[in-house]
Amino acid sequence: MIQFISGGKGSGKTRKLIDMANEEAAKEEMNLVFIDKSDKNRRDVVNSIRFVDLSEFYIYTWEMFFGFLGGLISGNYDIGKIYLDEIEKIARVNDTAELVDLFAAVKKLSDKFDVDFIFTIDAVEVPKEIEEIINA
C-alpha cells in the first residue's frame, strides 16, 4: 500500500507523518523505518523506529534512491512500513515524469514485499498519473 500526505509548504505534513509513525510504533506490531533528508526530526521520532538520515548517503538520482529502498528491504525482511518525508527532495526528482517512474517502481516493491509506504508530497493534491499507479 502507498499513502500520501499532501499539501503546500508549511501545511503540517511532516508533523502529521511523524505523529502517524509514532502512533504505529506504540502498537508494537511491526518494524518501522522513517527516512528524512536530514537528522532534524530525529528527536521527534520515537526510538523504536529506525531513523535514516539520507544526507549520510550519496544519492543523486531517483534511481539510486530506489536502489537504496530495495537494499533496505532486502537487508531487513521484517519492515512493515516506511515513512518518507519530502519525497521530491529525498529522491531527487526533477519533474512529474520522474515522480511517476519512481512510484511505479515503489508500487512493485510494496506489492512484492508487503511493505507499506507513507510519503509526504509537496502538492495540494497528488497528480492523477500517480494516483492511477498506486490504485492499479
Structural summary, described in words:
The protein is built from five helices and five strands, in the order E-H-E-E-H-E-H-H-E-H. The chain is of the alpha/beta class and 136 residues long. The chain has a five-stranded parallel beta sheet. Helix 4 (96-113) runs parallel beside helix 5 (128-134). The longest helix is centred in the C-terminal third of the chain and has 18 residues, at 96-113. The radius of gyration is 14 Å and the shape is globular. The mean pLDDT is 87.
Features:
single chain; 5 helices; 21% strand
Give me the secondary-structure topology.
Blueprint: E1 2-7, H1 13-27, E2 31-36, E3 50-53, H2 62-75, E4 79-84, H3 87-90, H4 96-113, E5 116-122, H5 128-134
Parallel strand pairs: 1-5, 2-3, 2-4, 4-5
Helix pairs in contact: 2-4, 4-5
The largest β sheet comes out as: 5 strands, parallel
Number of strands: 5
Please state how the strands of the largest beta sheet are arranged side by side: 1-5-4-2-3
- The dominant shape is globular
Order of helices and strands: EHEEHEHHEH
Estimated helix fraction:
40-55%
- The N- and C-terminal alpha carbons lie at a distance of 11 Å
Structure class:
alpha/beta
Ranges with pLDDT <50 over ≥5 residues? none
Tally of separate helices: 5
Q: Return Rg in Å.
A: 14 Å
- Sheet-strand content, in percent, reads 15-25%
Oligomeric state of the chains in view: single chain
| pLDDT averaged over residues | 87
